[in-house]
Write a structure and sequence with these properties.
244 residues, alpha/beta, Rossmann fold, six-stranded mixed β-sheet, binds adenosine-5'-triphosphate, binds magnesium ion
Length: 244
């Protein structure tokens, strides 16, 4: 579905991503994980075309992502940025319906899509008329997710969607996210810091360090056949956190 061929990105002297080959498969959830600054958000921004690669090229469903193609391709992607990205001066409903309305999508169809997604993500109906500051963190994440799913994107890109939540809410949302991805048969690229979350949600895990892929595979691959010491360290460090 999405293919990176020799894709790198630097900002002046700062290397965010070294030349990378990577494939994101259709109807699978691929998780990008690794320490802060390793290039996770950069990969999402390259896919959605907010950044241009320094070298190499990206393809979406066979089409090269470029300034000419990105506006069309972006309509086929749903993106939730690291901070959620809701407009503070719009209610949850207005946030969700902004783009569909702008694109002239039929009102009734969008309303029933919204109802379906609110039910699926267990967002209480009364929160739709509230402004983002009047919602809990978990509700805001649900609204961001619904907004990204409204136009039935072929790919859903999520940058640390659950990072700011308390552990109980986070655990609940993890369960719901997995159910939503499964129900919608959705292709997903998800960024997280948590190996437990990666193992729970990811069909494939891509572990990065300093702009390089250290290992890509299932959680069992990484656990049982770590490519190097960093992989085991990364998994074990998080285990120790859970125990202590
Ligand atoms: N616009 C920019 N200008 C300069 N450097 C940048 C820019 N955007 C990102 N970087 C640098 O590129 C590297 C990768 O950034 P990126 O945002 O992809 O990290 P990340 O893995 O998402 O980190 P985090 O887990 O903290 O969100 C970092 O060193 C960052 O400081
Ligand atoms: Mg990031």
């Amino acid at each position: 579905m999405i293919q990176l061929q020799g894709v790198s990105k630097h900002f002046g002297p700062v290397v965010a991503l070294n030349p990378t080959d990577l494939i994101f498969e259709e109807r699978k959830t691929t998780v990008l994980i690794g320490p802060s600054g390793c290039g996770k958000s950069t990969i999402l921004r390259l896919i959605i075309g907010l950044l241009e690669p320094s070298t190499g090229r990206l393809r979406f469903d066979g089409t090269v992502i470029s300034t000419e193609t990105i506006l069309q391709l972006r309509r086929r992607m749903g993106y939730v940025i690291q901070e959620g990205g809701l407009f503070p001066h719009l209610t949850a409903r207005q946030n969700i319906l902004l783009l569909p309305t702008h694109l002239g999508r039929p009102r009734e169809e969008m309303q029933s899509r919204l109802n379906e997604l609110a039910e699926l993500t267990r967002l209480p109906q009364d929160s739709l008329s509230r402004y983002p500051v009047e919602l809990s963190g978990g509700q805001r994440q649900r609204v961001s997710l619904i907004r990204a799913l409204m136009l039935k994107p072929e790919v859903l890109l999520l940058d640390e969607p659950l990072a700011a939540l308390d552990p109980m809410v986070r655990a609940n949302l993890q369960t719901e996210l997995r159910a939503v991805f499964h129900y919608l048969n959705q292709t997903v690229v998800l960024v997280t810091h948590s190996m437990a979350e990666a193992a729970y949600l990811g069909d494939k895990i891509v572990l990065l360090r300093q702009g390089n892929i250290v290992q890509a595979g299932t959680f069992a691959d990484l656990r049982d056949h770590p490519a190097d010491g960093f992989v085991s360290e990364f998994i074990n460090a998080q285990r120790r956190l859970v125990v202590s």
